[in-house]
Amino acid sequence: MSSSNITANWSYPTAVKLGRGRIKELADACKSLGMKKPLLITDRGLASMAITKNALDILEDAGLGRAIFADVDPNPNEKNLDAGVKAFKDGGHDGVVAFGGGSGLDLGKCVAFMAGQTRPVWDFEDIGDWWTRASVEGIAPIVAVPTTAGTGSEVGRASVITNSTTHVKKIIFHPKFLPGVVIADPELTVGMPKIITAGTGMDAFAHCLEAYSSPFYHPMSAGIALEGMRLVKEFLPRAYKEGTDLEARANMMAAAAMGAVAFQKGLGAIHALSHPIGAAYNTHHGMTNAVVMPAVLRFNRAVIEEKIARAAAYLGISGGFDGFYDYVLKLRFELGVPESLSAMGIAPDRIDALSAMAIEDPSAGGNPVPMTLENTKTLFKDCF
Hints:
seven-stranded mixed beta sheet, two-stranded antiparallel ribbon, about 50% helix
């Protein structure tokens, strides 16, 4: 099999149909989950694009109707969610096609979930066993179609929803958030602008790096994280330089899904810092991860030095921790990542508030070095 035409069917952690042109299987995927009238949910930017119109054509030609909801912000909030649930119910829909990058996928999954609930979405935040409060009957089936290679939300059991009043990002969790079928067609990612290829690719890398570094015991996730990092190292620069390189695009879709599978093991300070920054300043999540990554590596060094040296060896990087750290700096430079939060246009005037939000973020618990208000303030200063 030639490596330029990567095709695979995976059932871990859900059914994943990977390969170019496989968007043609969208209607069959919907029917396999019992959908007769799906609602395609995406973001405003994608709504008018050819790939989205093509997906709607495929559904319509198969007799599944043609319905789209695209009132979705880059960091989706509960207002988008309420509007999506209303559109779902008013249209008499029985399933969701979550289509797009992280925002379209997260909101689509959450609409399918909330269609069956009477309680407010915040009652299902990823805290303890809050997910058991949900009524399972009305949850609609989901087909996920990623158009970026980063968040891995297509294989995740959670959505990130921003509270529009407090500007805090909340992780909403339920096992039924996991889509029943994923269609990962690299041709849908070819149109991604360079900056989005870089940002989403670095998001996948951050997921793998943090999951691998987190102290929790989950060897399966650690193994997946390692290979995910290797795929990013080999294929992200290629996808960035040559957007039509379908081998690189397919491998980055795999790496993105692997990152999300791996971070069941935990995330850490990269995400704990990035979530409040994104909620407060509306920055791109993956790009923010990339900006704070070196500072977090320095912050965690004493605890993860040996672990990172093992990863470096696997990735073919010499020089242990220092070699790995230098590689991250080089990769950031290659992808045009801003050097610091200041270079992103953020002023250091809200460090206290951001630090307070960071230590409350669920990701903070997975950081190798325990995060306190004091050391988090120092870490934030280090990012400017």
